[in-house]
Specification:
The complex is a heterodimer of chains A (65) and B (419).
Chain A lengths: L1 E4 L9 H5 L4 E3 L5 E3 L10 H10 L5 E4 L2
Antiparallel strand pairs in A: 1-4, 2-3
Chain B lengths: L12 E3 L21 H15 L2 E4 L5 E4 L2 H9 L4 E2 L8 E3 L18 H9 L5 H4 L3 H13 L10 E3 H5 L3 H10 L6 H12 L6 H24 L5 H7 L1 E2 L2 E2 L2 H32 L1 H9 L4 H11 L4 E6 L3 E3 L2 E3 L4 E5 H4 L34 H18 L3 E3 L6 E2 L7 E3 L1 E4 L1
Parallel strand pairs in B: 3-12
Antiparallel strand pairs in B: 1-5, 2-3, 4-9, 6-16, 7-8, 9-12, 10-11, 13-16, 14-15
Helix pairs in contact in B: 5-15, 7-11, 8-11, 9-11, 11-15, 13-15
The chains are: A alpha+beta (65), B alpha+beta (419).
């Protein structure tokens, strides 16, 4: 599983970082992106799904499931 | 020394006749300032969602109220057809010349200028920038709780809105701005004047605005004379397109930070305590399982989101069959979107361990609340400290609870008996 953040949609609500700090990080302005290449270790898959389901802007996505 | 460019302050206006009659029908003659609206808002939105999901009123020169999440979202994203020139509904229309900056940038700004104004402030409100203020908020909450004096369980009644919630948000934002602590009471007065007075005559409203401007000018001048590293100092140092910000821009941004941060967070804290006073099971779970608190706070934000924003229609526009006219207001009730059953399971219930919670308490799109990380931190600590201090409490008299009027929804009198 891989996660990504659509930078066109992200408005910096910070929900994904709060729920899954292992998978997401913020830039200087508070906009989020996936850490590294977005690879999600199996033990963090549930957190990744929660990050997707809680993004107010529908910016967080799961790829390669 | 920082130079602040001066620009003319007079803005031509159009004014509509105030209509102070009570709302006769929520679908066709609604008035969000009607004192019956905020206390009953969730029921009003539920009914409208079933019967008339985009309500209309001739008041304020023409106003629309969409209540479905999809509609609120679509309008929040559509900066082609809607402008943020005015985000508080009133009988006045400011001249188009105030765009794209607007009176309180960046909330009143439109793209592409908006992003430049916003990027000055965004780095200062990142979540990590809030951490140093946490201990101050804990201390403030505890001081307020101590100030309530001797508590006799079963007897003592406190006003959790006026004696507690109201005081939490003022001091952090004013310290961040670098304003004198002694002025905190003055800020609350300014906020009330700007947000809750939209039906008053234009002369009174202008006088209130001038009073705030004069105060802010004084503070800005003090920062020019004694430069320091705070929010005001950052605005004075910032440039857009190689130019320092105009004095109006600096003052408008400060007014925004002061006003937007105070009534809103106060309301969220008050509504959360209002809920917890009536729901002992939720209260006890949050006390016994503190790991639930982050999810519980998000649920409070969903169910009791305090902020409804507004837009003006740019040009005549058909929205889902609604003939919106240029210069009509459109309210964006994020709290109503948060209770839309198409978006949320069991939308009308407060479920404090709700895991999937795509709420929009802080708005949607480019105007997402700049202070959301500060507001969350203040709300969480204020609720935590209250729950730590008082294991059990109830509404002393449900009928004595009063609610704000206007676009910020929350209790203004909240008598709670400690039990």
């Amino acid at each position: 599983m891989r996660v990504s953040v659509d930078s066109e949609l992200c408005q910096g609500h910070n929900r994904c970082v709060a729920l899954a700090p292992e998978l997401f990080e913020l830039d200087d302005f508070g906009y989020s992106s996936a850490k590294g290449n977005g690879e999600v270790p199996p033990e963090l898959e549930e957190k990744a799904r929660l990050a997707v389901a809680n993004c107010p802007e529908f910016a967080v996505k799961i790829e390669d499931e | 020394m920082t130079e602040v460019a001066d620009t003319p302050t007079e803005t031509p206006m159009v004014e509509f006749e105030p209509n102070n009659e009570p709302a006769s029908d929520w679908a066709t003659d609604f008035d969000h300032v009607d004192p019956r609206y905020n206390p009953n808002a969730p029921a009003i939105w539920d009914e409208l969602r079933e019967t008339c999901p985009v309500a209309h009123s001739d008041r304020y020169g023409g106003t629309w109220l969409p209540v479905k999440h999809a509609d609120v979202r679509r309008i929040a994203y559509d900066t082609e057809n809607f402008t943020s020139r005015q985000v508080i509904v009133s009988n006045v229309r400011l001249d188009h010349d105030s765009s794209p900056v607007g009176g309180a940038p960046p909330i009143t700004s439109d793209p592409p200028f908006h992003q430049h104004a916003r990027k000055i402030l965004l780095p200062l409100f990142r979540p990590d920038k809030m951490d140093p203020w946490e201990s101050k908020v804990h201390e403030l909450c505890n001081n307020r709780l101590d100030a309530m004096g001797e508590i006799t369980p079963g007897e003592t009644v406190i006003d959790a809105a006026k004696q507690y919630a109201q005081h939490v948000p003022v001091s952090v934002i004013s310290r961040m701005l670098g304003f004198p602590p002694a002025d905190d009471d003055l800020f609350r007065y300014f906020v009330h004047n700007v947000l809750e007075g939209i039906q008053r005559p234009i002369e009174e409203r202008q006088a209130a605005g001038e009073e705030l401007d004069a105060y802010l000018d004084q503070q800005v001048q003090d920062h020019i004379d004694n430069p320091r590293d705070d929010l005001t100092g950052t605005l004075l140092k910032s440039q857009i397109f190689g130019q320092p910000l105009s004095r109006e821009h600096v003052r408008g941004s400060i007014a925004l930070l002061l006003i937007a941060g105070i009534d809103t967070t106060w309301s969220a804290i008050g509504s959360s305590l209002w809920h917890l006073a009536q729901n002992p099971d939720d209260r006890h779970r949050m006390q016994n399982e503190p790991e639930l608190i982050p999810a519980a706070i998000e649920e409070m934000l969903r169910a009791y989101a305090p902020v409804t924003m507004a837009r003006l229609v740019k040009q005549d526009f058909d929205f889902n069959g609604c003939p919106m006219k240029a210069e009509d207001f459109v309210l964006l009730p994020f709290p109503a979107a948060n209770r839309d059953p198409e978006m949320f399971e069991r939308a009308d219930e407060v479920i404090i361990d709700r895991e999937v919670n795509r709420h929009s308490a802080f708005g949607l799109g480019i105007h997402r609340c700049l202070g959301s990380n500060l507001a969350r931190m203040e709300l969480r600590i204020a609720v935590e400290e209250f729950l730590k201090r008082f294991r059990d409490f109830e509404l002393a008299d449900p009928d004595a609870v009063t609610w704000s009027t206007g676009q910020i929804r929350g209790p203004r009198t909240l008598p709670i008996r400690i039990i």
